[in-house]
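Justification of resources, computational component.

The compute hours requested in this renewal are based largely on the per-chain cost of generating structure records like the one below. Each record pairs the submitted sequence with a full structure-token output. That output is archived, and it is also reused by downstream analysis tasks.
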Amino acid sequence: MAEEFYSLVTDYGTEKQLRCITDGLPFEVTHIALGDGNGRYYEPTTSQTKLVHEVWRGNVEKCEWTEDRFYCVTTVPAEVGGFDVREAGVFDAENKLIVITKFPETTKQAPESGTVKQLTIRIELQMSNKELAELVINPNLNVVTMDVLDDTINKTDEKFNALDEKYQKLEEKGVAGGYAPVGEDGLIPNAFIPEPETKSILTPFCLNSCRLDTKGNPNLLSSETVKIWQYTSSSLGVFYTAQEVTLAKDVVVYKDTELTEELATIVAVDTSGLTISFGTIETLSEYEDEPLHYSATNYGDFYVKESLVLGAECFSDAECSQLMGVVTFLNLTRISIGKVETYTFDGNQTTHIYITANAPFTYTTASSKTHHIEENLVLDVIDLCPTDATTKNFNLFVDCESDGYSLIALSNTIFTQMLEPTDYKANDIWFKIIEPLASYIYLLNIWQETNLVPVGVFTLEGGEK
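The structure output for this chain reads:
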């Protein structure tokens, strides 16, 4: 070797780079380990799978370019020490050695020596293709170094005022109460996620955070099948309720099968005689000096001919010539005046299958713009069900337009690669993983730019709806 000290990509690291380029797989770097070589130098080889004698391991804090070289960086805390460094290695999430380094002998003093200081370690990660650097994923990027923390705390924005109280030292990661603050929803608050001016640190084409289940697994999507019954009343016309709803007092009925537009509220119903009353229950008051003269909160003054009972006709004048309606509900202090009508059960049924992406969640587009979704997104996928007794798989995407966020379901293929796909069809998505990063959808026989980002998959079974 021309250099006395150098880094080598291991055989595993070379294979990992090749898989990343050909398959579009992420290139993870998670940890840097230091070793003392068992007290002596040796010549590293690409076949190595571990250090000769590891003495310390820490998170990769950042990856950076210096001139034309790409480095992984970590910091050995001041309170750690009492060893010499002669070898170092970069490991991935599977604890496999990617890079092995012959390191200039460096002594990390023990805390009790009186010479206590941090030690910054930089290891070159040699790329077979420069574009690979854009695909390096470091799960520890949410680690806050002292420099970044000091810079952040100096911001004038009030949301950063408590950062110095919330963030803790790197070595406290994983201990009770350690690391970054977590909100009631189990996520790090957006105010504590660094937002670079030019580019998001979060992974593009990707869902970056969402709610978790009790085991800590992503739990973004939920589904619900809703069946709707149709009825018709003599004067109100068609109305709808959910299948499991029984017609009864205070039940709301709807204009539409999605049950979003309220039509009326039931105040009385006779299911045996198929009569029903809709209206509003109001406060009732009586004029003591004027028998048969009453007042209702919304209707105002009204009169009855003989006595105030269910079914009694109500008039707006004392002469009982202007009919207002009949009493459809009555107790000592409450009343409803309206029409008593008949209804029929049509037997018509509408089915909805709702897929919900449960907020809050965060995703990042190919342009590295990060979106924070604060409200649930819902999509009815009933019309996508196969008509025959088969199953069909779908990718679920989130999209952002001028009128807000929405979900889109496509039965398609997602290509994550540098080169344009060769075997594709309409609606297929291509995430181009070479700078500048971009994403396309194949429509009208051409690849068109899109900001769609996948957030999940689901399967629909055909047959009767």
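The CA atoms of residues 47 and 371 lie 43 Å apart. The first helix runs from residue 11 to 23.
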